[in-house]
Each structure stands twice: as C-alpha cells, then as structure tokens.
C-alpha cells in the first residue's frame, strides 16, 4: 500500500502526473469535491469541507488496501500533516513529490492567488524541519522525471 502526495502551484502538472504515471492508483484532490454533474463549480466557502472530504477519501481507500495519490497545492508543511498522520496510522511512509513546472492552469486560479501561494511556499528544507515524519520530497520537472524507484512500476 502506497500514499503519494503531490504538491505544487496551480498549473504545475500535479493532476497530469497522477493521471499519466499513476493511473492505477486512486487519484484524489480537494478540487474533486467541486465537480458536480461533470461541471467544476468552485466555492471558496466550501474549501475546508473539500479538504476534509479528500482526507476522508484517502483514509477510505487506504483501508481498502488501495494505493492512493493525492494532488493538492500543499504550500505549507501543516497542510501535509494530516496526510502524514493518515500514512502513519496505516504503518506506511508517504512519498512527497514536488512539481516545479508551469503549464496551463485548468481551474482558472487568478494570478494574484498564485502569487500569494508562491509567497507562502515552504521549500523542501522547511518541510523537513517542520514535520515529525520526514518523507524525502522528490523534485519532478516533467511527468515522471526523478520519481523514486519505490513508486516506479
């Protein structure tokens, strides 16, 4: 059983990586909460619920012995903490992949919001210092580049 957490700014290729390289994993992200009848309807007032749903789904699929990949921005260490705890609860270590490329922003996140995310971004060293569980982030510049052997298939 594997839990992979993919972090990166909007448009960095997180979802594409999950779909193209990990199609056999259960792919989850908070944005899926806002897909209603096949249409994306973002409501910022529901963001907390969306992230709660994503964590619940992660726990659900891991309890079914499924490999799971979660793609969210995870701009700061605390945003990873609950997922790292979920992994620990299942006796596994989460792998963290950091996306650094910039592609098309499919959810239409405004440039100002991306600038705010960039300003609060915790780098790899900050993440290591800030958390109890210390999975080694892997920098991926293109789909699949630099993935650890443990997640290659």
Written description of the protein model:
The chain contains five helices and seven strands; from the N terminus they run E-H-E-E-E-H-E-H-E-H-H-E. The protein has helices spanning 14-21, 47-63, 77-89, 111-119, 124-130, and strands at 3-7, 26-28, 35-36, 39-40, 68-71, 95-99, 138-140. A five-stranded parallel β-sheet has the order 2-5-1-6-7, with helices on both faces. The longest helix has 17 residues, at 47-63. It is globular. Mean pLDDT is 82; it is low at 141-153.
Output the helix-strand order.
EHEEEHEHEHHE
What gyration radius follows from the Cα positions, in whole Å?
15 Å
Structural class determined from secondary elements? alpha/beta
The major β-sheet equals: 5 strands, parallel
Are there runs of 5+ residues with pLDDT below 50, and where? 141-153
Q: What percent of the residues sit in helical stretches (DSSP H or I)?
A: 25-40%
Strand order of the largest sheet: 2-5-1-6-7
Q: Which keywords apply here?
A:
two-stranded antiparallel ribbon, 153 residues, 5-stranded parallel sheet, alpha/beta, 35% helix
The gist of it:
The protein is 35% helix and 16% strand. The chain contains 5 helices and 7 strands.
């Amino acid at each position: 059983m594997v839990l992979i957490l993919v972090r990166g700014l909007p448009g960095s290729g997180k979802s594409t990586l999950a779909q193209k390289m990990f199609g056999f994993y259960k792919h989850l992200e908070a944005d899926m909460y806002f897909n209603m009848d096949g249409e994306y309807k973002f409501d910022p007032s529901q963001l907390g619920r969306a992230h709660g749903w994503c964590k619940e789904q992660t726990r659900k699929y891991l309890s079914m012995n499924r490999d799971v990949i979660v793609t969210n921005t995870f701009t700061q260490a605390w945003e990873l903490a609950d997922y790292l705890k979920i992994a620990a609860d299942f006796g596994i270590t989460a792998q963290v992949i950091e996306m650094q490329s910039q592609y098309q922003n499919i959810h239409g996140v405004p440039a100002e919001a991306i600038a705010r995310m960039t300003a609060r971004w915790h780098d790899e060293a900050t993440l290591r210092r800030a958390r109890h569980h210390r999975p080694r982030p892997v920098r991926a510049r293109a789909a699949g580049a630099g993935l650890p052997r443990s997640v290659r298939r």
